Amino acid sequence: MQDKPRDDVILDLLAANRSYQTAVDALDDVGCAYLGVSRSDGRVLDALQQREPMTAGQLAAAAGLTSGGMTAVIDRLERAGWLRRVAHPADRRRVLVETTPQLHAAAAEVWGPMMESLDEIRDRYTDDEIRLITEFLALGRERNEQRAAAVRARVAEREPPAA
Prior knowledge:
- It contains 6 helices and 2 strands.
- The protein is mostly helical.
- The protein has a single domain (6-124), classed as Orthogonal Bundle (Arc Repressor Mutant, subunit A).
- The longest helix is centred in the last third of the chain and has 31 residues, at 127-157.
- It is globular, with a radius of gyration of 19 Å.
- The N and C termini lie far apart (54 Å).
């Protein structure tokens, strides 16, 4: 493995990354099914867990939804018991959205064992190697976000298909 040409090493990296993404996607699929939510709703819950509490507008932006669409999602996920609306601590007229202990418990059942298994993976690498992997993932995320924005803009420019 050490003496592979750089192009082959890069191809191996790309293949491993795609396989990883596919595996994460599969776990998220069954995790959402376990929670009884759509993948779109699962992405909203994930965005909220990463940055909570958030306003509905912030959550809509993070999830790539319209404010009207977000209201329906929040209503649905609130009825399911996965999130709740709470008063903003600085402005009682504003509302924040946060996840519930029920969501944390259910998510821990699905994703908790995976997080625990990462401990043994993490222990195989030095802190510098982990920083390098983190940098790689952050740059990849940034490039994916940029590309998604560019494609989204092209889709928005398109004429709707003829009926």
